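User: Run a structure prediction on this.
Assistant: Running it now.
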Amino acid sequence: MKLRDQMPELEGATAWLNGERTKAQLVGEKPTLIHFWSISCGLCKEAMPQINEFRDQYSEKLNVVAVHMPRSEKDLDLEEIKAVAAEHDISQPIFIDSDHKLTDAFENQYVPAYYVFDAEGKLRHFQAGGSGMKMLTKRVNRVLDEMESAE
């Protein structure tokens, strides 16, 4: 995906945990953070407390959706995904992407990976890897500030 691309439809999940979301539910009202993670990814687990803090701190202003992207056969175990999600307090909706349909739609190759969309559903920031939470925070705040100043 390139900056300013429209958010893909959230289709092709093999399952949803914590409630299902559609693009139509996310776009129009507030910005959205979509983060890709995997149960076999150590960096993802390390970053999760910060993502959860984000989710809680910005709950009124920001949609947060997790996408579980399997990296191996072992990552396809739904019960294991549920257990890891509970262990790491992932209470936001989780798109289980066992067939890589959303991964392909995003052209995503990384976990963790973070996509920030503005309220109109345009991609405003992308980053991958375990570091850079400060940059992610800055970018989310910029999108939120732009929205508030437009009101």
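The mean pLDDT is 94.
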